[in-house]
Amino acid sequence: MLKPGGVMVATREHVISNKKDLQRFLDGHPLHKFYGGENAFLLDEYLSAMRSAGLEVQKSLAPLDSPINYFPMTTEQFFDYCTRPVAAILGRTLAGLIFNSNHVMGRALMRLLVNMINRRDQTPGRLYSFLATKPVSKVAAR
Fold this sequence. Notes:
Radius of gyration: 19 Å
Strand order of the largest sheet: 2-1-4-3
Distance between the termini: 22 Å
Mean pLDDT: 93
Largest sheet: 4 strands, mixed
Strand content: 15-25%
Helix content: 40-55%
Number of helices: 8
């Protein structure tokens, strides 16, 4: 239950790309075999479930969009992970200059890179977080 105007936050939800990936995710999960409590759904299933419950999805955070999802990676490990393909071609120093977070252009390029990696990531069980709100009805607002 969420009252009108309420906020729902769901963090580190497991997402799969297709139904065949579910068993692969469960087989690889380190704790599922002990208690069987894990599950994963398609991204569209999460979004549809929230909308069907009358919620408005405000934000959907992909695996690399937030430290909440990419933890336990540190910020440095995150940067290295994302820039590794560029660093392999241009070297770490030049990649560091290109994606420098102290510059607007570096932040913009890093955001493009992260978006590209997120779109290509098909890892079964990758982590997403969601922010949704329950609208205040116009009748109740009067």
